[in-house]
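Class prep. Protein, please:
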Amino acid sequence: MSLDANSVQRAIAFAVVIFIVQGVARFVWNCRRRSLALKHLPGPTYGWLGIIDALRRRQIHRSATEWANVFGPIFRVRLLWFHAVVITDPELAREVLHSPHLDKLRYLYSFLDPFLGGTNLLTGHTDAHWKAVRKGVAPAFSAGNMRHAFKHIVERSGVLTGILAKSGPARVMNMDNLLLRESMDVIGRVGFEKEMGALEDFMEGDVGSGASVDVMLRCTHEVERRARQGPQRMLKIWRKDVRHGYRLMEQWQCVVRSLLKHMQLGTPGKGTFAHMLLRVKDPATGQPLTDAKMLPEIAALYFAGIDTTGHSGAWTLYLLSQYPEVEARVVAELDALELLVTPARPQPRELEWADLGRLTYLQAVIKEVLRMYPPVGLGQIRVNSKRDLILAGGRMSIPAGTALWVPHHAMHNVHHNWDRADDFLPERWLEAGTEYATRRTMPAEWYRGWAPEAAEVAPTSDADVAQFSIQADATGTTGSTASVGALSMPAGTTGAVPQDKRGANPNPSPAVPGLGNEIEEAELGGRRRAKRYFPFAEGQRHCVGMSLANITLPATLAVLLSRFSFKLADEMGGPEGVLKTEQYTLITGMAKGMLMNAVPRPGVAAE
């Protein structure tokens, strides 16, 4: 029996319709399944679009902190059809971030692809390619290479102090931009053996490489807009700002391509990023990385090395300008080490490598700044798209496709993890082990019978989902409780504490009801406490270049603060203006930079 053409077409059309209907039904079922499994968790109220309004906030990183202070260490949110469990309990966060069954939620990181040129060390899955690149570049950040980088950091910091001295105290300087330029020069030298000259270009009107700092910053703003507005933004090419965004991305890619060309034309020194990248073998072919795969890795290393330290340095100068008593202690430490410019010591000795270990209080200041303003404030988001995940020794079963979000800003600033969380207190870091949790956020029974870092996948993707019921008062009022199975936990506090005019609360943070259960060493069984502080991420995806940042920040700040005191410029509108301009793009930064006056210390010679 033969079939005519129309019958075949109808059969094909029917099959396509069935396929689409099945796909939609499966999608709806999975969304409904996740929603039912998580409905007993506390969380903010929102419309059918979910937390879409939070994405419109300039300070999106602060949203999770505000929610955690109300709803406690475990709560749920939804954005469109994406469900997420937000975790600020240190033990559970450790289990999630060290789990081999979880990986990055690729969709969220895909917005970086046009900027970085494709998947890379920052945005890719933890697959064979990622492991090959990570293993290949890690030696570039060895102790020996960092000692080599140190001299370049000190030299570039000296150039920056010269610019400030020549400009004079009356001139308003964008310290965020200048510190980004210094970082660009350092990364260019130690990573690629290329003179970027970004600081010199500042004095010459940005006719050279220094202009790429502004291109980079504008690109990060464009990435943030695309992530906030969705992929449809990229289709609106009739809009002038969208077309400008495409041009910015191409300009940045030109900068990255110039670095690749520089690498290929020369012979990169041993230990540089360039040298290590050229030696990486693609696990799929056994050959060196192609240009198409090399470019995203160059872009990621270059960008991450510049943006993180530049913005963090600016936040440090800002907080010191608001806390003169803290600055005075930093100055006293520099003076004791004979690094401070004074009338009796107009030419102090040059900063040495060994001084980094002696600058105890300055290091404490930097750690406190990174606590309050973690670079990647949005944090780490993990997912297992195929299998349900069992956490906390079986107490929690997370449906496949549910994101697990560990927000860094919230981890660092919630009241259930820190005493006086809203206060700028560098002194807290003078005690060893401050980065580790000192108390439980849940009752002791919650932690018994399960080992951190032991997350498992459910036997099948259709495993029953335990509806662990955390039923909290939706208002998050003080004293309300929630249960996980038969256990009870505090649902939250009275909410976020308003910041004072300097950006922190001078009064102690309110006590979190039901907490204060100190962790006893005997309970740990030889294990370390879980971390509550990880400014450079945690788990195997922690920042490969954090050792460079941990040298650049104290060295640069020591050189600057030995010669200048920094005052917030009137144009910033005081601390209230700084808070308004604070924003999260790819890093916790500021929309208009950090405008300051650099006032020479007594003894600094006028240029």
The chain is about 45% helix and 10% strand.
